[in-house]
Amino acid sequence: MEVINIKVLSLFDGMSCGQIAIERAGFVIDKYYASEIDKHAIKVTMNNYPDTIQLGDVTEINFTKYLGKVDLLIGGSPCQGFSKAGKGLNFDDPRSKLFFEYVRAIKEVKPKYFLLENVVMKQWCQDIISEMLGVQPVRINSNLVSAQNRDRLYWTNISNVTQPEDKQIYFGHIKEHDADDKYYYSDKAMNWINRHSDRTGKQLRVWDDNTKIQMLEASMHKLYSAQRFFAVPDKKGLRYITPLECERAQTVPEGYTEGVSKSQRYRMLSNG
Hints:
Elements: E1 5-11, H1 17-24, E2 28-35, H2 39-48, E3 53-54, H3 63-66, E4 72-75, H4 99-109, E5 113-119, H5 123-133, E6 138-141, E7 148-149, E8 151-156, H6 171-174, H7 187-200, E9 205-206, E10 213-214, H8 223-226, E11 230-234, E12 237-239, H9 243-249, H10 262-271
């Protein structure tokens, strides 16, 4: 079997899930350049892929000077300005404006292939991205290949991208059956949830074994506020989802995000 070595540039690299995907696709990474500014995400990346070449802030990179052409450009530009969970600022949101850095990278490095991922958004936003990249997106929900709902748009010049086969994976397949006691709701926490539910009408959502879970979005990453309305039932009571279960839901290797705080693990896994 032919071994294909590729040179990759990843913008908004996060914890470098791109390297996991590329390796699983059977490619050998010759050089992997990553643009990321979050120190926790960089730490996780370097723990797992110490040969990663970190370039720093995307707005300060002269791609032509340092990289030349690359085989593959990937990225998922920050989506908070596009997301339904955001403030609806769209391209006026400074985070969403980083999309134009992706466009600049295409022009400067002239990749053989590119792949951009983002949330499902308003049609006019989608149309602008499609016009600037010259391709229409493919919409794929990761619940076909994982235990989580994650509906996303993918713009790419890679041909013949099709919907993956539904593997029928549910929360029961990734559930941790001997979770640490610290993940269980205390009586105090349950009283808070019940009072808040009575006041707001927001009910506790239970993820049973046949559920496709909803990973927390970036704007909801704080564990003890957002997670309180999601519960996993098991033999010891109700608890919230563990970092290991989040890793399994995101299909990254178990233990991949170890080495940073628990809250940072949740945040990165929701963004990954």
